[in-house]
């Protein structure tokens, strides 16, 4: 209780002096004095995607190693379930909440209850919107993730290097591409799409890339709840309506491995085979089935975001706020949630293609060779 009161005072002070005071290059949050046996609530969106299971496991085990008790809950992408899980965590006396939201705009009321109980809130990977009651944000550089997704597609088509630099003597195209975005209620989806379009638009403007379906608007290409089956049926419709003249789609911007798998199913269903005409497909999360698909050539690339590192950032943030300190952050400008700019710690992501699976995913211990080849 004492710690919570101290935190509330500090938080109020931080509001007054301005959250822009949080800056990069600060000393990492100390983990000394952690683990008083208190309870931390961890709310995750769904177990249907393997990445969130890895995130939940990593946050839980790291908190337990620091001596905390952990209430880890998954809401199976059902918003009322997530709200009531968070409500329960508050009732049980959680000292901090770490929340990966389903819909970033639906937690305003429950987080007011958390604020009334002086419980600090850390938004995990997805920004929580429309509330001042979110204290910190742990994520990746989401705009950059989107750029990397575009560079994956451009690289697969021979147009740029993986870091986006132009390739001398690149083909003139035109290449047919189709675009997919993530869930419109997830703040990240807009960042990924905007980052990707920043890189793709010049090629569209010059005619090297052609979005043959004409579907380029975020709301048209968005995929509610990141659902692979929804993406599959959207692509099936596009292939029927736009490509039945015998033309082929050459590249597909996908923001997430689960969506990429839906895309692959649609292509197979439409008779595409794994030869020179198979399109370049991007992804995100380095989920095991998609890493296998990269190995077999069905998917060109994914974006690796190390969930163990993200968990470590969130755990450090929790410990720092419980100790009355200020967690390390490196961005105080980009994540305006509609009420406040949330001080953020953004990690780097990496593009994974077939060639660097061993160095990026196996050497780091994220996946074993047996898991990938099994
Ligand atoms: C996003 C997240 C992505 C991906 C997606 C679908 O919020 O940043 O990495 O996991 O959700 O789960």
Question: Overview of this structure, please?
Answer:
It is a single chain. The chain has 2 domains: 4-134 and 306-347, Rossmann fold (3-Layer(aba) Sandwich), CATH 3.40.50.2300; 142-304, Response regulator (Rossmann fold, 3-Layer(aba) Sandwich). 42% of the residues lie in helices and 13% in strands. The protein is built from 13 helices and 12 strands. The chain has a 6-stranded parallel β-sheet with strand order 2-1-3-4-5-11, sandwiched between helices. The protein has a 4-stranded parallel β-sheet with strand order 7-6-8-9, with helices on one face. α5 (142-156) packs parallel to α6. The longest helix has 19 residues, at 187-205.
């Amino acid at each position: 209780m004492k710690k919570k009161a101290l935190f509330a005072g500090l938080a109020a002070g931080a509001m007054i002096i301005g959250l822009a005071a949080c800056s990069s290059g600060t000393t990492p949050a100390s983990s000394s004095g952690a683990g008083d046996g208190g309870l931390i609530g961890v709310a995750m969106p769904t177990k249907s995607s393997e990445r969130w299971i890895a995130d939940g496991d990593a946050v839980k085990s790291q908190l337990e190693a620091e001596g905390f008790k952990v209430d880890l809950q998954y809401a199976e992408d059902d918003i009322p379930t997530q709200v009531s899980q968070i409500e329960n965590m508050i009732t049980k006396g959680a000292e901090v909440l770490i929340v990966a939201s389903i819909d970033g705009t639906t937690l305003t009321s429950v987080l007011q209850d958390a604020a009334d109980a002086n419980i600090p809130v850390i938004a995990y990977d997805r920004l929580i919107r429309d509330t001042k009651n979110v204290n910190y944000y742990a994520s990746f550089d989401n705009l950059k993730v989107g750029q990397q997704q575009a560079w994956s597609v451009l690289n697969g088509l021979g147009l740029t290097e993986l870091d986006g630099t132009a390739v001398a003597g690149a083909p003139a195209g035109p290449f047919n591409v189709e675009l997919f975005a993530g869930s419109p209620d997830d703040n990240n989806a807009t960042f990924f799409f905007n980052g990707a379009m920043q890189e793709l638009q010049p090629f569209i403007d010059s005619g090297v890339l052609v979005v043959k379906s004409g579907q380029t608007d975020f709301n048209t290409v968005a995929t509610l709840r990141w659902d692979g089956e929804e993406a599959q049926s959207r692509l099936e419709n596009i292939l029927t309506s736009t490509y039945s003249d015998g033309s082929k789609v050459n590249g597909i911007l996908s923001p997430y491995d689960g969506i990429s798998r839906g895309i692959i199913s649609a292509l197979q269903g439409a008779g595409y085979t794994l030869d020179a005409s198979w399109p370049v497909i991007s992804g995100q999360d380095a989920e095991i089935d998609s890493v296998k698909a990269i190995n077999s050539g069905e998917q060109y690339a994914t974006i690796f975001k190390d969930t163990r590192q993200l968990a470590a950032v969130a755990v450090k943030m929790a410990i720092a706020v419980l100790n009355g300190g200020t967690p390390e952050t490196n961005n105080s400008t980009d994540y305006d949630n509609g009420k406040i700019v949330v001080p953020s710690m953004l990690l780097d992501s990496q593009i994974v293609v077939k060639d660097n699976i061993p160095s990026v995913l196996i050497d780091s211990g994220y996946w074993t060779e047996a898991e990938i080849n099994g």
